[in-house]
Every structure is written in structure tokens, then in C-alpha cells.
Amino acid sequence: MTDPIPVPPALRLFDLAGRVAIVTGASSGLGAETARTLAGLGARVALVARRKDRLADLAAELGGVAIAADLAESAELDAVVPAVLDELGPPEILINAAGNRFTTERAEDESPADIHRTLELNLVAPLRLSQAVFPHMRRVGRGAIVHVSSISGRVGVPGIPQASYAASKAGLSGLTAELAVQWARHSIRVNTVAPGFFRSEITDSLYDSERGSAYLRRNIPLPAEGTAQDLVGAITWLAGDAARYVTGQTIVVDGGWTAH
Questions:
Q1: Of the residues 18, 122, 176, 190, which has the fewest C-beta atoms closer than 10 A?
Q2: What pLDDT, on the 0 to 100 scale, is given for residue 11?
């Protein structure tokens, strides 16, 4: 039997072997790609989303655990971390990738119901899940929380009305800085990744229209089309020891949109 090929020290910085990770929004898109990557690095992954059928298939593929939950519903959110504890053990990584935009109305016309739904899913749920994993990360002696935000939390995007969505994503950066400072003494790091435009279920219509694709080409300096995989690299870096000394930051991954 031949000896295993040694892993270069630089690659060990990304080794997540044995660590329990929770990924929300894991039934498709960025959440699913993040779950695949974390599992590929050795993490034991709990996949959280509303669509149980998609979760079950991905969990079987990754050897993970599927937890169906609507994070806008308080009782279902409260059940997530206890289920992870029962199935996998204490979480050391939390990726808050679930999010949505519930209205395309201009700010003056957004309904109170849509504003509430947006803030509950995009901002309140990440805070409450962070609260839920905190005691377990503190007990383990380390932890990494990564929120998925948006460049709309940093700049206005002409032609795409999204006031409550932008407010919820800007709130994640404030939450990140505050939690990072409060929980640093427990070696719990908290960061945010702020994506620009990339293909997803929400943006497919923009990419597929001639006008939309021309708009993106005009505003994104890098010529390549962004994909979920482009964001996963930043998320993976922040989740592991390669970013051991990084906390309280919002990392923008937007092809240069906000640089000009």
C-alpha cells in the first residue's frame, strides 16, 4: 500500500475536516455550491432551506443532513440548530446564504408586508441563527460566521428598485461588525461577503434579456460573467483557518462594479 500524498501546508489552511457547518439557502444556487465546496473540504454539512425535495438529493450527494425550514417562521428557525446538534454535533461554521427580494416596487410604494418579510428573512434570521450557534461555538472554542449580503447594501443600483432589500443587506454589514467585536474574545469570527451580479434564480431574466445583459456589460469591468463559484472562494476562505485573523469585514465580490 502506498503512502498518501502529503498535503502542502498552504492547502491545510483550507482543510475543514470534521467541522460541522450549517448552510442556509442550500437548495439551489450559491447555497448549494457553498455546501458542495465545504463538504469537499471535509466539513460535515447541514443543509437548510424550504424545499425539502432538493435538500434531500443534495444531502445524499454530500453525505450531509437536510433540514427543511422556512427561516421567516420563528418556530421553524428555532428548530434548526437543535436539529444540527442531534444529527452532527456542535456547529463551528454558519453560512447565512438564504435571502430574497419580495417586491420590485419603488420605495414609496413598498407595502409594509413586503418590508417586514424582507427584513425577517434577510436580516433578522441571520442574527437569530448567529445567536443560536453562539453558545456551541463558544464551548468549542472557535467559530466562523459568514453572512451573504449584496452590493445593494453599499451602493444604489439604478433601474432596480429594492429599498427594503438594500436596507436588509446594509444591516448585515453593521451586524457583522458588532458581532465580530462582541464575540472576538471567544475566537468567533464574523464576516460578510457582498456579491455583485451573478446568475441565479432571481437574476436569470436580467441575464437572458438583451437589454439586461448589455446593462451588466456596461457596468462590470471584468469581462467574465459572474457565477456562484466565484463567490464560494471568498466564503470558503472566510470559513476556515486561512482567514484566522479576519473578522468584522465585508468582502465585495462584484467584478469591479463598485470600483468605478
A1: 18
A2: 79
E runs forming strands in 7-160: 20-24, 44-49, 65-68, 93-96, 143-148
Inter-axis angle of helices 125-140 and 80-87, to 10 degrees?
Answer: 30
For residue 66, the enclosing domain spans 15-249
Which one, of 130, 147, 162, lies nearest residue 231 by Cα? 147
* Residue 260 belongs to a domain: no
Number of domain units in the chain? 1
Q: How far is CA 257 from the centre of its chain?
A: 20
Q: Half-sphere exposure of residue 14, counting CA atoms within 13 Å on the CB side?
A: 15
Over the Cα atoms of the chain, what is R_g? 18
- Provide the CATH number for the domain around residue 28: 3.40.50.720
pLDDT at residue 2 in the model: 55
165 is catalytic: yes
